[in-house]
Amino acid sequence: MRTRIPMPSALLALLLPVLAVAAEPKPSADELVRQVDKRMSMQSDYRGVVRIRETRKDGIERLIEMQVYRRDSSQNFLMVITQPRNMAGGGYLRIGKNLWEYNAALGHWERTTRRANIVGTIACEGDFDRSRLAEDYTAVDEGEEVIQGTRYRKVYLSAKPDTEVSFAHLRLWLDPDLNIVKRIGYAPSGRVLRTDLVRSYQKLKDPMTQQPVIHYREVFEQEEEEGTQLVVRYEDVQLAPLSPNLFTKSWLEGRLR
Amino acid sequence: MRGLLGIALRNLFLRHEQGLLLFAVIAAASGVLVGVMSLSAGVAATQKDVVTTFLSGELNVGGFFKVHPDSISPVVGDAAKVRAVVEPLVPEGCLLRERGRGQATAGAGRHRVRSYVVAVDVEGEGAALRRFKVKDGALEALSRPHTVALSTQLAGRLHVRLGDMATLFTQTVGGQRNALDVEVVAITERAGLLGESAGILVSNATLRELDGYRPGSAGVLQVACAGPDSGLDVDGLAGQFRDSLRQAGFDVLPPAREAYGDKLSPLLREGWAGQRVDVTTWEDESAFLGFISAGLAALTVLVGAITLAVVMMGLFVSLSVAVRERTREVGTLRAVGMQRRTVVGMFMLEGMLLGAVSSGLGAGVAAGVCILLRDAISLPEALSGFLFSDTLPLAPGPGHVVAAVILATVGATLASIIPAARASSLSPRSAMESL
After folding, report:
1. Sequence-ordered list of residues with C-beta below 8 angstroms from that of B149, at least 6 positions apart, any chain
2. pLDDT single digits (tens) B325-379
3. Which chain A positions have a beta carbon within 8 Å of B109's beta carbon?
4. Which of A171, B244, B278, B375 has the greatest count of CB atoms below 10 A from its CB?
């Protein structure tokens, strides 16, 4: 025997999940940023190869390859340049809050800051470091923007006082999965410094937490002022323990020898 | 004499077409000479003003510190001891200000520019900071830590604006390389070549942090006097400072006409280590800019020589023609008893009169025009760098007018000697024969 469900009840049953979603408060901008950081954070040590293709406005192209090592638990960071050959052996080392640049040709260590660009490109050290948007910035929700049928959350970030960041202000476009798809970096005066488009992500599994981690695969970066473009590819990423002696000046100096 | 003056004036008015042309040429040449001298004086005054604002006091007590023979820093480690020695010698009306100095590379994004750093004592200098011409922002904000004021040229090359961040890279006193992020709180007006070469202004505290200097150190103690023309005998006072510092046990460098930046490399090659004190005048510190004043002095001499040549050639030709045309007049004057010497005097007086009146008028008008045009003509960027000003720096003075008039008058008088001698050599008989 078929039981007939009354029409109003059926409608209510259909609308309930929709209403529940609608009633659920949208996460705040700060919460969004925290979630972005969480999705991209790794407990394990990180190693990967970054390949950069730089195209200047006059058409000159440059290819740069670097090996990146990170230990997010202690904020240590090491970057070794392997290409081009004239810069090979040089790199960047960060221990805690101190960042040094190593010039292999001269054998010189030079203290630098996170704001300074690296390897003479428009990229910064922060591009290759762990995501720490929630630590460094305060976020303001700028609502949603629909682009080609997809809703993107726009968030405007301003650097907290006394934080060392590459961009004083950032505007992010986040897709429904909270992936950053577009990012514009501004100077404190409001001038646009760089526009990034994240072309693709890669999914990794953190062996320490057994949780999935999202990491960039390819990012397109464009400097507004001079029209220089970078295509940054993150390849051969491995999440595995690194040698405890890696994050030292002597390790980088020793590589050349 | 009055008779001769009358004859000379009558002749000038009689041959007014020729006379007017000559008058205009001498007046114009004198005017140009006054213009060049005004420019030279204006540039010299602007240069001193800019140098004593940015680089130097009237007198400087700085020094060089070498941790080991292979490194050098332009710093006085124990500034309080040096201050105690020199402070009693500072003349009345002048003050002893503490400045820092060094070199740094300023970076923003991919752009990097190397320049000299000038560190100021924001609280101590107070109103004196207003001598820096600020285009945007306020120099008082330098009292905040990690702030910088950049010159217009440097801000342009780094593509930064007020409120933006830049990074300063430098070598510390021990030879390590350091970096510091700084906020741009002011942008200074163009200050000629110094805007490019000494375009980074920070506070003394920021420079100490950047260069790794200990508290109590100072780059230089500068004797700053009110007004650009204080009339101070800086060389004499520098000698007193050196003697007092030597007596107090300091190792004092001998005087040298060189800026501190030019002394770094030669001193680095020397094998000593420790502290040496250096006393310099503002002229020593601006020695690297000497080519500008030398160039303008050469230009003034050249224009003066051309003026003299124009006056002498013009008058020589004009009076030679006049002598030929006035043979009958000369013969008549000689026949009625005028002496040869009086004839010479008559022609020379004519030349002198023309030279004095025309150059006086030309120089006077040129001085007036210079006053009107002072700071009114904008200069192209390339030229403003050498002249230390965005506008044409003209400083006409009575001395320039007097010098131009004397030069033109002496030239005119000298040029009339030969034609006058020729006229006086005519015998009354030959002159009468031309009738």
Report:
1. B132, B134, B137, B139, B142, B184, B185, B186, B187, B188, B200, B201, B202
2. 777 777 777 777 778 888 888 888 888 888 888 899 999 999 999 999 887 888 8
3. 117, 122, 193, 223, 225
4. B278
